[in-house]
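Structure in, sequence out. Go:
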């Protein structure tokens, strides 16, 4: 039975990933259409902290500071500085002809715009001239500006923007405050008719298909979903609060029960409940697409609550015993994942592009956290009440779901965790599994991403 369920799970994972990605693309498109209908566009920046601009800083002679009502750039020495507006994808300046600025300054300054049509293209510049402090909030018609190349020659107005920067020159010590910016279409413009996403594609295939259309037409949208109104401020916190109540009430209720022979014996069932309570938070955060470039506080709370509950179980010695290494004769078995990974890379990979040291350390640390959570907590607790093959299967499914909606990566993780969980439940040693996980991830990142494996990103980060 466990073998049949494992095969069914392996086949179901890419189907699940594709449906999650399809829904996410259609919801994003619905938001885009709502922005166009409101006279705005997806290229809209609410500037409140350093994460709202490229590189989180001003380029050149400016110092960036966050204010309650915007971003302030202080001129450090009177030389020009630049603020980059992040572009998740290229902007079509034939459709989005106007740049709206909501800004102010403490003194008169000289302003301009720099644009690259692709990230490799040369910069073209448009001069906005000398502007008074109270005349910065304006609508700039980009198609009517005089654009110059680096040599000062007049060139055609750019039709795309892969880089967009506001340039400014202010006297030393004076400030520019940026509150909002947006690229907007003219009033008579209508967005293209939405395209229907094709059926039968994997999660990776859907994203590749979407990206190919957006290269041709950046204002394209997909599907016919309707944008939902923003929820009340309290609503995103309802699930974390309910989760917190469960984490408090379940142990308290268990402790309040008198230890009779009927209530003391089923501690194994209590362990299975604890395993479910632990994993719900992280899965809700990741599989629910909460891990975005700027994750929301409710999603982070869900993840941390689950992790905190697992730590409480460990501190109270409610987890089955485990150790780091175990017998050295058996410690090499989890590392068999490495030759398998090398074989996959040899067949379908590319020349290695190694991640930075910081990124590599992040992979290693996250690998240890995941394996402790999945094996030392979830699998070990479930194995108290279910047969070992079912505990292995549940651990593998949970591990795969922590990589939603990266379909191929979910399948790779599922297969790997079947072996790792089986070995762990026999040996109860964590370090060999975590090491095999970390090294395999580094090899995949260096030699397979950008090819058959789109990336190692998960949750909403995978959609970019």
């Amino acid at each position: 039975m466990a073998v049949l369920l494992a095969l069914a799970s392996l086949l179901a994972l890419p189907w699940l990933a594709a449906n999650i990605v399809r829904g996410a693309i259609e919801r994003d498109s619905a938001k885009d259409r709502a922005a166009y209908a409101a006279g705005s566009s997806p290229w809209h920046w609410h500037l409140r902290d350093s994460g709202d601009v490229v590189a989180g800083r001003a380029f050149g002679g400016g110092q960036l500071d966050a204010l309650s009502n915007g971003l302030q750039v202080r001129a450090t020495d009177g030389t020009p500085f630049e603020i980059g507006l992040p572009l998740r994808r290229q902007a079509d300046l034939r459709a989005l002809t106007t740049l709206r600025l909501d800004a102010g300054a403490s003194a008169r300054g000289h302003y301009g715009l720099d644009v690259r049509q692709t990230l490799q293209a040369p910069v073209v510049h448009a001069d906005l001239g000398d502007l008074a402090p109270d005349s910065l909030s304006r609508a700039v018609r980009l198609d009517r500006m005089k654009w110059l190349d680096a040599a000062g020659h007049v060139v055609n107005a750019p039709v795309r923007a892969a880089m967009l920067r506001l340039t400014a020159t202010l006297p030393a010590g004076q400030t520019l405050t940026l509150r909002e910016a947006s690229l907007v279409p003219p009033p008579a413009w209508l967005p293209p008719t939405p395209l229907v996403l094709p059926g039968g594609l994997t999660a990776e295939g859907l994203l590749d298909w979407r990206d190919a259309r957006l290269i041709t037409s950046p204002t394209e949208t997909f599907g016919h979903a309707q944008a939902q109104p923003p929820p009340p401020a309290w609503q995103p916190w309802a699930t974390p609060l309910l989760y917190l109540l469960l984490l408090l009430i379940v142990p308290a209720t268990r402790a309040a029960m008198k230890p009779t022979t009927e209530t003391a014996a089923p501690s194994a069932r209590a362990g299975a409940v604890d395993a479910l309570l632990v994993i719900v938070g992280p899965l809700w955060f990741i599989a629910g697409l909460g891990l975005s470039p700027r994750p929301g506080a409710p999603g982070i709370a869900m993840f941390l609550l689950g992790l905190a509950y697992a730590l409480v179980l460990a501190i109270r010695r409610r987890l089955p015993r485990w150790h780091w290494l175990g017998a050295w004769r058996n410690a090499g078995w989890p590392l068999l994942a490495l030759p398998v990974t090398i074989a996959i890379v040899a067949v379908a990979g590319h020349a290695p592009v190694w991640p930075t040291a910081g990124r590599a350390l992040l992979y290693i640390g996250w690998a240890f956290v995941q394996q402790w959570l999945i094996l030392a907590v979830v699998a070990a607790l479930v194995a108290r009440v279910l047969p070992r093959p079912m505990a292995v299967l549940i651990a593998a499914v949970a591990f795969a779901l922590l990589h939603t909606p990266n379909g191929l990566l979910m399948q790779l993780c599922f297969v790997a965790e079947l072996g790792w969980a089986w070995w762990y439940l026999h040996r109860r040693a964590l370090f060999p599994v975590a090491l095999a996980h970390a090294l395999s991830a580094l090899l995949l990142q260096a030699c397979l991403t950008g090819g058959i494996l789109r990336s190692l990103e998960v949750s909403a980060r995978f959609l970019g």
